[in-house]
Write the structure tokens for this entry.
Amino acid sequence: MKSFRNIVGMTAGVALVGGAVAMSAATADAAPAAPAKSGGAVTQTRALTADAAMKVADAARKEAARQHQRVAIAIVDRSGDLKLVVKDDGAGPQTVESAKRKAYTAVAWGQPTSKLAQNATGTGPTVKDIPGTLFLAGGVPVASGGAPIAGIGVGGAPQGSIDESIAQAGLNAIQNQLG
């Protein structure tokens, strides 16, 4: 009798798992859930896709080549986590870190780093003291629906304005697809 209960229990467990897998497969093809209503416990956010990040990087690399610059290009998500980094052949060892920090700073404040750099001055503590930030020109935010969703940072050109023009070229490649 004990082994019969074990077999019935195992069969029920397999059926339960099989049903859960079938349910997961069915819902995987379903349309995405509607945005959460105000006051709910869940919210949906917009995010830059991997394909869009690749388009940004490709356009930025082309612009860097056009300007004869060897740079690193970093793209971070809304949380500041690295999504993609590309370092051109011959780019200096500091370029990747510079590009990541510029991208992070741009998405964190939702403004180009060239604009933010103007406000990061003074003798006391300023926003430039926040770890991971870099208030040099070369970072631009990516916005969708009026909010920053990613940051693009470029490091390695002899002037921040050149880095920023390269980052802007990357943004321009997807600007009309951001909604």
Notes: The longest helix spans residues 2-28. Strands lie at 72-77, 82-87, 139-144, 147-155. The helical segments are 2-28, 50-66, 95-109, 113-117, 160-172. The chain is about 45% helix and 15% strand.
